[in-house]
Specification:
299 residues, two-stranded antiparallel ribbon, alpha/beta, 12 strands, eight-stranded parallel β-sheet, 40% helix
């Protein structure tokens, strides 16, 4: 069954933060290539992370390609042919993990924003000073390479800026590959400050888009975003951060990393059909979420 068809009948559970799962397994992700580095140095660790999320109840695995770009990897001395191989491998590893569990599973190829390549937090600001045409040129090679790997869907995620969303949708238009478009937001606006109504409107008329929504945001910002996204008539995708906060004085995270799951019923009640977690949500958190949504996952 295609993912788009499943969304017509029920809620589908996404995985959580790949980086969180890898860090919980003891891996150092301080490199500028972040979790993408492990596609090169320890691909089994990436597969194991996907498998942990699937076993916890996730039905969709988002690949470790978020930080993988030809430009970013070139800065680390990794050539274009090897980068293309790693992009293909990101999909193959998630697919391999899916084959080790029972039931329907899907693979979403992560397409992170331009700012992720800069590795300086720009994905939470947007407004890079690039034109839409320049952003199209940046995104096209990676997206075309991921499409070759035949994922079930492209996860265009953590997009801070309407201009960048327009650029990515220009690349995917006509490809025939399903896409979800997910913004990073602050309050009721994109991270670049645009109204969410404007942000979601760019998906109109792009046949490949099967869902719009938000990710990598506080859980309390999700409900409003769902109500706005639902007005598009498309299914809504949401995968916020855990809701924990960093205590700089104690140098520790505070709060319950599974608490966001208690809000999921409100989100699905207003149109969310793809629900998961982002930063600080490991397999245990997704297990809690899957349990909370169990009744809504029946076809």
């Amino acid at each position: 069954m295609e993912l788009k068809d499943a969304l017509a009948d029920r809620v589908v559970v996404l995985d959580g933060g790949m980086s969180t799962a890898l860090e919980l397994a003891g891996h150092d992700l301080s490199d500028a290539l972040w979790s993408g580095r492990l596609l090169l140095t320890d691909p089994d660790a990436v597969r194991d992370a996907h498998l942990a999320f699937y076993r916890a109840g996730a039905e969709v695995a988002i690949t470790a390609s978020y930080q993988v770009t030809f430009e970013g990897f070139a800065k680390q001395g990794i050539g274009s042919a090897e980068t293309a191989r790693l992009l293909h491998a990101s999909v193959a590893l998630a697919r391999s993990a899916a084959s080790s569990v029972d039931g329907q599973r899907w693979v979403a190829a992560s397409v992170g924003p331009y700012g992720a390549m800069l590795a300086d937090g720009s994905e939470y600001r947007g407004r890079y000073g690039l034109s839409v045409a320049e952003l199209v040129d940046f995104h096209r090679p990676r997206i075309e390479t991921l499409v070759e790997a035949a994922p079930d869907v492209l996860a265009v995620e953590t997009i801070p800026d309407v201009d960048e969303a327009a650029a990515v949708l220009e690349v995917v238009r006509g490809s025939g590959v399903p896409v979800w478009l997910s913004y990073s937001i602050r309050g009721d606006r994109t991270c670049a400050g645009q109204p969410l109504e404007e942000a979601f409107a760019v998906a109109a008329g792009v046949d490949e888009v099967i869902a719009v929504g938000v990710n990598c945001c506080p859980p309390e910002d999700v409900a409003h975003a769902v109500s706005v996204a639902s007005a598009t008539g498309l299914p809504v995708v949401v995968y916020p951060n855990s809701g924990e906060e960093w205590d700089a004085a104690e140098r520790a995270w505070t709060g319950d990393g599974t608490g966001f799951a208690g809000l999921a019923g409100e989100w699905t009640g207003h149109g969310a059909r793809l629900v998961g977690g982002c930063c600080r949500t490991g397999p245990d958190a997704i297990g809690v979420l899957a349990g909370a949504l169990a009744g809504e996952r029946k076809a």
